[in-house]
Task: structure prediction
Amino acid sequence: MDQISFFSAEASGPRPADLAGVLCGPGQIEIFGRTAARLSVAVDEPWRARALAAEFTCRGIGAGVVTEDGRPLLRTAFRVGLIGLANAWCSGPAKVVPRGFRLTGAELRLWALAAGQAGERDYLLAMDEQAPQTHAALADALGCLGLPCQVVTPRGGGPAIRVTGRRRLAALGELLGAPPPATEGAWPGQHEAERRGPIAGLRGRQPRRARSRTLPGSMTATIW
Result:
């Protein structure tokens, strides 16, 4: 577990390179004139757009939120500072995973904010349905963090990566760091915590019954 902690989202300061996390999911990047690029990602809930905007801002990349096709869309301006990210993730018009890509906790956090969803016993990280060529490489990158996973096809509700198992979900949660406010069940372990409740650890324990004991001198003590 110590090795995984080294790669967690809090292990290093925020960097613009962390924004690659949204490209692991449904994010898109456009190049303008080979000198600037624009990053955008459509999400399903407003809280995701707000959380991602805050993550972008703390990395020195401003982004605005608009509504497109009824969904929140987070989008930056065309920026010179994003051209390196675009060159790494684009091969012509296609999105590709850079050769030798190593997923970090910070990138994984942004991926989860954009497209992560917790179940009672698993966690899904949605991938870009328009970029099937990225799916196997992203699964391998997650496996390199010590999190074996499965690729879920569109027929099974994907495309997505599924992580299962209590220990793996705990490790994933450590990598992602603390959830932002109002994640609405999109962080590993939230559904289980809600189901168990705050006194789940007391289930099955019977209350202790008091016993009376007569002490010398006709005194009576109550013993719990």
Remarks:
- Residues 1-6, 195-224 have pLDDT under 50 and may be disordered.
